[in-house]
Amino acid sequence: MSLMSEYINKVFPHEGVFEIILGTAGISENLAPIGLIRHGDDFFSKIFKNTLTYANLKVKKSCIVNISLDPKTFYILLFNSHVINKVEIVKREYDNIPYLENSLSILSECIEIENKDNFSIFKYNFIKLLNNGTDYRAFSRGDALLIDLLVHITRLDIFSEEELAKYSSIIEYEIKTIARLSPDKLDIVRDLIERINAKGLKISL
Ligand SMILES: Cc1cc2nc3c(=O)[nH]c(=O)nc-3n(C[C@H](O)[C@H](O)[C@H](O)COP(=O)(O)O)c2cc1C
């Protein structure tokens, strides 16, 4: 295994979906939150065609994958990108492509391999590490939801019937989403379904 793929395994440690900040250029430089899908040792993103990210990638196939665990960074880049450089989010550039100064940033090729009506699938070909950050592991929404689910399970015994009815749909959503985004946790999910259903709920995968 090359040093790069060993590194990539640490950043994206399981199958499923991670959330990253993708830097693109081409038409105009842009940083946007994007889901990155790991399937075996291959990495993809599904990019909607109504985004600047898509338009950029059609013109310039290089991109920069930025790793952050900070939800505020995701929020600012989604809705308030005009404040970049005025807050703790500082933008740098490599080959005209933007990346985040405090993030682990990986230069990559981003090749369109499937073209659908509303979106395309792009495949990553990681090239080199550009920048070291404080977070070296990508954000996994599935793993985060698993913690939330564990909290809900500890409360099953003290929920009123009304609360139980309300939370069972949340619990079911979390179970299904964890299974999809963090399939490496399926054994845990199955065990938790048994524990939840032993309390009288009827949750299935
Ligand atoms: C955590 C997160 C993950 C996202 N994943 C994707 C994705 O995988 N593909 C996509 O096209 N949009 C995704 N989005 C939505 C884009 O970030 C959003 O459409 C953004 O406005 C696109 O920006 P752009 O037009 O500047 O490229 C995601 C948003 C968030 C907050």
TrEMBL record:
<dbReference type="InterPro" id="IPR012349">
    <property type="entry name" value="Split_barrel_FMN-bd"/>
</dbReference>
<dbReference type="InterPro" id="IPR049288">
    <property type="entry name" value="DUF447_C"/>
</dbReference>
<dbReference type="Pfam" id="PF04289">
    <property type="entry name" value="DUF447_N"/>
</dbReference>
<feature type="domain" description="DUF447">
    <location>
        <begin position="19"/>
        <end position="128"/>
    </location>
</feature>
<protein>
    <recommendedName>
        <fullName>DUF447 family protein</fullName>
    </recommendedName>
</protein>
<dbReference type="InterPro" id="IPR007386">
    <property type="entry name" value="DUF447_N"/>
</dbReference>
<dbReference type="Pfam" id="PF20766">
    <property type="entry name" value="DUF447_C"/>
</dbReference>
<feature type="domain" description="DUF447">
    <location>
        <begin position="140"/>
        <end position="185"/>
    </location>
</feature>
